[in-house]
Structure formats: structure tokens, C-alpha cells
Design brief:
Number of domains: 2
Order of helices and strands: HHHHHHHHHHEEHHHHHHHH
Distance between the termini: 43 Å
Bound molecules: heme C
Number of strands: 2
Radius of gyration: 27 Å
Helix content: over 70%
Structural class: mainly alpha
CATH topology of the largest domain: Formate dehydrogenase/DMSO reductase fold
Shape: elongated
Length: 496
Amino acid sequence: MLGMYPTFYVPGIGTAWVMGIIGVIHVVASHTSVGASFLFALLETRAYRENKPQLMEFIKRYGMFLLVFSYIIGSITGPGIWYAITVASPRGVSGLIHNFVWVWASEWVYFTVEVIGVYALVYLIGKIDARTHLKLTWSFALASWATMLLIVGVLSFMMWPGHDSWYQTGSTSEAFYNVNFFAQLGTRTGGMIVMAALVGLLVASRVSDPALRRSVVRMIAPVGLVGGAVAVVMFFYYLRTLPHNALVMLDTHLLPVYAKGMVAVFAVATLWLVFAWAFPQHVYTSLAISLFLFIAVVGVWPEERMRESMRKPYVAGQYIYGNQVIARDVPGKGIHSEVERIAEHGLLQLHPFVPDRLRTVTDANELEVGRLLTKVACANCHSLEPGGPLRNLPGKLHMATDEDMIAAFLRGPLKYGTQPYMPRIDLPDDEIRAIAHYLAAVDSGKNVDRLIAQQQAAEQRAVAAANDGKSGSTSAPALVAEQEQQAAGQATPSRN
Ligand code: HEC
């Protein structure tokens, strides 16, 4: 048996989208708050040096805004990511924990400091002496950034360790300081400053004193522009640190779709910051909100989506496939590839959560086995329903209803792993046929779930009849008939 977990599938959108939606909200909230911590530190340093206590008024306002939005949303979506990834990619998460358990533990320590810090910062303004408060604000900024730095080590390892020796040693520091690390840290640091500047303009738009608003905006806007420049330069560096499969995915699937949006986000953010600097009195709340939303949605969603998609076929470290199968040996961690074992024995025999009655393919259960195998082998990366947003399989198969054609794809490219963005999925022939049978049925528009429910009911009926013959009980068939009707749904005419 393999160390696999049950497959969790959200019909329609696929589990990856659930993760994506939570993740994007989290990134917007968390990056804004980390970036804001630096803006606070810079603003407060200025307030202290130039003796401008009115700037503290703005910091208090912005800090309160963060407390209500970023920290609440961030702290809800952070654990939300944990729940979502644990069910979507249990082995991916397990792999990360086995590499980074102490890194994560340290991250939580800094996060605690950060949360206490933001409360202390807002509520102690004017209550403690200015110098101590300034130290507090800088500590808050460094603790916030430390949470990002530690998480980036984990996120960038997900793309790949980059140096081959990690597979031999399994060392945490080699995993953490992977080739991607500094590039991603730089891109996110630049990006978070831009986000914080944009939210800062939003908060500044509510400041009624024109002199205060002007001095705040004139300070925030250039910092935002520098952040944007850092993000762009580091992003180009980041592109140079990617593995081959990611570059293929970028060239063929991602850049053609997202490049224009990325340029638009950069242009709009730059123009907006320059405009704000030039005309601080025209920084209106409605404008600030719309531009922030535009940049958060059009900027962050593609960025996260790209990072996730580029990593395919792997979910972590280029050794765990998206479908949870171990792709290669990692001697440093005592991990062995499972691809060949699956090719030899099949998923039905090796997956611990396959019900016994489905371990062998028969005419009666082929559709159900096909659905199960497709969920296990493909659904981490593909929606199963036509039109689903996550590279839906019917669409990818051009609605093919020919079982042999679908099977040929599984016996060719998937078996030999020729598509750089898809795992090598080498299955025994009966499993390939079951998958093809299921996918062809979905493509031909059949209500597959209902058909399977009917087949299950028929099977139970047969078992019940056999038992009935033995025991002489009369209640079992009636029970099964009732179950079958429930399973088949209201619309089906009753069996006679
Ligand atoms: C680890 C992720 C992953 C898994 C698992 C996966 N695929 Fe894919 N698949 C992809 C990606 C990525 C693409 C290409 C991206 C796109 O078209 O948006 C793709 C594309 C495809 C295509 C289009 C042809 C092509 O080569 O671009 C088909 C057909 C397909 N997959 C079928 C399957 C089937 C069937 C399974 C399960 C047996 C499966 N995939 C499992 C990631 C995956």
C-alpha cells in the first residue's frame, strides 16, 4: 500500500480553486499589513526626527484600519489555507512539514509578536514616550517581515530546491535557501510595499486636514514607486530561477494569457502613485478604492495562479506530484518513487482508501471505478465537469466520446510522462480503460453520478437477494428498493 490519503474533491470548481480563492484574499491582507508596517516605521521615524506629531494621527488611523481589515481577514484566511491544503494536497503538506517544521514554528512566534505589536502600536500612541514607541514600531516591522521571509522559504521550496544535493541530504537549510528564495522574497517585498502604499492612499483620502494629507501622500507615493521598481526587477530575476517545466508552462499557457494584465497593473499602479504625488488634494476615496481593488484583483490573482500553475506537475520540491504520487527517490529523506510500483500493481491495489468492492474492475463497476481513479489521478489539477474553471477535463479532451482515443492519450503521453506540466501516470490497462470509459461517458453528456447510483443500487439488490435466499428474510429487498429510489433521485420513474 502507498501512504495515500482520501481524495477531496469540490465538484464544479475543484479543490485547487478553493485554495486559490482563500490564498488570494490572504495574500492581499497579509502583504498589505507587512508593507504597512514598514510605511509606519518610515513615517514615524520622520515624525520623530522632524518633530511632526500630527503624522502619528495618520499612523493611528491606518493602524486601526489594518486591525479591522487585514488582521481579521488575514487571521481567518491563514488557517483557512491550512485546512484547504491539508485536504487538497495532504502529502504535499506532509512533505513541507517534514522539511520545515521549525521554520513554521518560528513563523508563528513572529506572527504572535506581529499581532501583539499592531495592537500595542495603535493603542500606545501618545501613552508612552515617542522614542520607545518608535522602537516598538520598528520591532513590529521587522517581526512582520520575518513572517514573510520564513513563509517565502517554504513557498519557494515548493517550486523546487534548485540544487540537486538537497535530494541527497534532505537538509532544511538547503531546502530553505533554494535558488528561488531571494528572488521571490524580493518580488514579494516590493509588491507588499506597493499594496501598502495603495491602501495608505485610501486611508489618506479620509484625512480632512489638507496639510497632513499632503505630507502623508507625498511621503507614501515615492515609497510605493520604489517598491514597484523593486518588484519588477526582482520578478525578472525570479523568472531566471525557474525550472524547465515552469518555463514551458509560462511560455505556452501563462504569459500569453497574463502578460497584458501584468503590464496593465504595473502601468496603472505607477500612474496612480505619480498622480497622487502630484495632486494630493485629488486623492478621492472612491478612486483610491477602485484602483486598489483593480490592482489587488488583476495583480494578485494572476501572480498566485501563475506560481501555482508553473509548479505543475509537482506540488512540492519537484518530488511530489499534484496527484500526491511520489515522483522520484529522495534518499536524504528515505523517500522512494511510486510511479513504477503503480505501473506494476495499479492504483486500485495500492491505494489504501479504495473500497474493496472496487479493487477489481468489472462490467458493473467500471464507471464507478473510472470516476474514482480519475478523481485520484487527475482531479487535483483538473475539474471533472464540463465548463469547470480548473482546466476541465472534458474541455481538455475536446469533449471526445471515443474511449479508445482517450485511452490512447493515457497509454501515450501520460504513461511516458512526455508532457512537462503533467505527471507521469502509468497505469495498468484495466485502469486506463476504466478512466477512458468514465471520461467518455461524461463527455457524451450522461448523468454519470446517477448512473453510478443506479448501478450501486442494483449491486446491493443482488447482494440482498442472495442473502435473502439464504436467510429467508423479506425486508431486505424492500429496503434496497427504497435506497435505490433515493439514490436515483426524484426525476427517475420508479422501477417496476
Ligand atoms: C499535477 C497536475 C496534473 C495532473 C494530476 C493531471 N494533469 Fe492533465 N494537465 C495539467 C496541466 C498543467 C495541463 C496543461 C495546462 C492547460 O492546458 O491549461 C494539462 C493538460 C491536459 C490535457 C490537454 C492536453 C495537453 O497535453 O495539454 C489533457 C487531455 C489532460 N491534461 C488529461 C489529464 C488526465 C486524463 C489526467 C489524469 C489521468 C491528468 N490530465 C492529470 C496538469 C495535470
